[in-house]
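Re-run requested by the PI after the first attempt was lost when the workstation crashed. Everything re-entered from the original request form. Ligand of interest: NAP.
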Amino acid sequence: MTNTSIKPVKPVAMVTGASAGLGLVIATVFHQRGYRVMLVGRDNDRLRAAGNSISDDNDAVMWCMGDVTRPDDCAAIRDALTNSWGRLDVLVNCVGASDRGLTMELDANRLRELIDANVISTLVCTQAMQPLLGESGGAIVNIGSLAGKVGARYLGGYNAAKHALSGLTQQMRLELRDQGIHVGLVSPGPIRRADAGQRYSERTGGALPASAAAPGGGTNFKGLDPERVADAVFKVATQRLPDLVLPGYMRLLITIGNGIPKLGDWLLLKFTKGK
Ligand SMILES: NC(=O)c1ccc[n+]([C@@H]2O[C@H](COP(=O)([O-])OP(=O)(O)OC[C@H]3O[C@@H](n4cnc5c(N)ncnc54)[C@H](OP(=O)(O)O)[C@@H]3O)[C@@H](O)[C@H]2O)c1
């Protein structure tokens, strides 16, 4: 008699933009909950440090360098994943970039950069991973923002880029469901981090109040705990939820703004500090 022990196959999650910030926290949470995780970013040293901060077991955590706005890089990342773990169950498109500024001063090239970082990255990476996700009947979670659901002052081209991402996500969900692939969106407000408030300080001044450098462009929010956001991402992937907003009460403001735009604008102006 032979004693064959069959090892259960662990599910695999890929997180783009996982060498820092929210992406690293999301990758950590998926690892803690039994997933193998693949980290993606453009800098190998940052990726190595991030990967090692999660685990030194290279059968549990891997990283792959690439710019996810480039189709060739995404194809190479998919091939590396196929050769090592042979499957993909969850793709988290977390790469993104925020902004500060006034729309009347927004340079068209700056808006193109923001659309590249927030929208093209998601489109191109998802297109590359679609065959693997189709095989597993997997899930995609796109990281949006409250700025992709409602307006806010002083966020430069970020609102436009994240609104485009919200639209792209719903369209993907409608199209990919027949292939058994779920697509969800998580739209968080400002997230707590050590360098919050310092990342955009050089963009304020002139017509922009100093408070615009603060998270959310100076909205009256307490920063969200990143682990809470990562937990929401996990839920959207595993419970196949379509659309989650954090904090949840903001869903009411979004609904009011869609139904009664005048009232929505008034409330939004109240949420943001002016000059
Ligand atoms: N921070 C917040 O308060 C907040 C609030 C709501 C939503 N969000 C959203 O959450 C996501 C993460 O934000 P974050 O502030 O945590 O980000 P972050 O700290 O700026 O980190 C961005 C990550 O993406 C990587 N990256 C950037 N461009 C890339 C590209 N083209 N290809 C591959 N990797 C790339 C960066 O590494 P390399 O530069 O080394 O490649 C880094 O790992 C974004 O989509 C953001 O819009 C953030």
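Saved to the shared folder this time. Residues 16-23, 40-43, 46, 67-69, 94-96, 98, 117, 121, 143, 145, 188, 190-191, 215 surround NAP (CB under 6 Å).
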